[in-house]
UniProtKB/TrEMBL annotation:
CDD domains reported in the protein's UniProt record: Ferritin_like
Source organism, top-level taxon: Eukaryota
Protein's UniProt name: Ferritin-like protein
Keywords: Signal
Organism: Glarea lozoyensis (strain ATCC 20868 / MF5171)
Endpoints of the signal sequence: 1-18
InterPro entries reported for this sequence: Ferritin-like, Ferritin-like_SF, Pigment-catalase-like
């Protein structure tokens, strides 16, 4: 049993290495178990934990306790950040140990780059990353075969969600904006993580995950806080990129698909006039609140549901107030 984990992991890796150009449909795995099963999922979790650990390690090295206080994050915020760092570090060692115990090879740490430049942008990004962590563990849950791993994943998930609430509250965001959290699938999370990954360790066959990053979705900066049921959103360059990549033509109906809690909202985009010809929606759906995820898709929610196969780009993240 143990050995079959390893074999299937390697099989999964060689599929990716052997055929770099994959058809979109082959990645329509969504929430199903990926090739390699639990080993791939543990390595997926480990990749996210590495990312979080590195992020807090840099943040704690970059900014002093006094700078946090000055930026409006009074004690014991700094001490609690150290505690979060310690948790992420412990998750890394635990998951590596679990993989080794299963006779599988843990992935090596990638190289990361974060866009935060000061305390405020660091804490804002921390909030986003913790939210993504929650969504990642939640989305992976149904693909985990071994119930013992499921309990472990659950016990990490609840701690990530506590980090998330604490950091959200420190930013005066609602600590628990909805009665349900939002599951994201493997490729959606990988797309988000990939934005911070600048390189994998060379010549390491275990690091080619069987996941795919969608083309990034850029939201035009908004001067106002996003509000459910009222704010517009413009997706910069998405139309041009989609046409250029041959995924759509200028006439293809495209939908902005919002994920919030267990709800999915489809909003048909319109195209703005002028050279830019950007996709735009006039109103974030009522009910999409908190850390809301959005992808562009050709699915309308009726004839077809959103899936990896019909996702054009994503994942965008919006913080939306009620
Ligand atoms: C820490 O500072 C370095 C150098 O300025 C910067 O490149 C990096 O993004 C910062 N990291 C974080 C998490 O803020």
């Amino acid at each position: 049993m143990r050995y079959s984990f390893v074999t299937s992991l390697l099989a999964g890796a060689s599929i990716v290495l052997g055929s770099p150009i994959e058809k979109r449909a082959e990645y329509a795995m969504g929430f199903n178990a990926p090739p390699g099963g639990d080993v791939t999922i543990l390595n997926y979790a480990l990749t996210l934990e590495y990312l979080e650990r590195k992020f807090y390690q840099e943040g704690l090295a970059n900014y002093t306790q006094a700078q946090f206080i000055e930026a409006g994050f009074p004690d014991p915020f700094y001490k609690n950040l150290k505690e979060i760092y310690y948790d992420e570090q412990t998750h890394v060692s635990f998951l590596s140990g679990a993989l080794t115990a299963a006779k599988a090879q843990p992935v090596t740490e990638a190289k990361y780059s974060f866009p935060s430049t000061d305390v405020k942008s660091f804490v804002t990004l921390a909030s986003v990353l913790e939210g993504v962590g929650v969504s990642a563990y939640l989305g992976a849950a149904q693909a985990i075969a071994n119930k013992a791993y499921l309990t472990v994943a659950g016990s990490i998930l609840t701690v990530e969600s506590r980090h998330s609430s604490y950091i959200r509250a420190s930013l005066a965001q609602s600590p628990f904006p909805k009665p349900f959290d939002t599951p994201l699938d493997f490729n959606q999370v990988f797309s988000l993580a990939a934005q911070f990954i600048t390189g994998f360790a060379p010549n390491d066959p275990t690091i080619s995950p069987p996941f795919k990053a969608f083309p990034a979705l850029k939201l035009e900066a908004s001067r106002y806080a996003y509000t459910a049921g009222s704010s517009p959103v413009t997706f910069s360059g998405a139309m041009k990129n989609g046409v250029k990549a041959g995924l759509i033509t200028a006439d293809t109906p495209v939908y902005a698909v919002f994920f919030s809690g267990l709800d999915t909202y489809y909003v048909k985009v319109r195209t703005t006039r002028g050279d830019a010809g950007d996709f735009k929606i006039d109103m974030i759906p009522k009910g999409a609140v908190g850390q809301v995820y959005v992808v562009l898709s050709t699915a309308d929610g009726e004839a077809a549901k959103v899936s990896d196969a019909n996702t054009l780009s994503g994942v965008g993240i919006l913080e939306v107030v009620q």
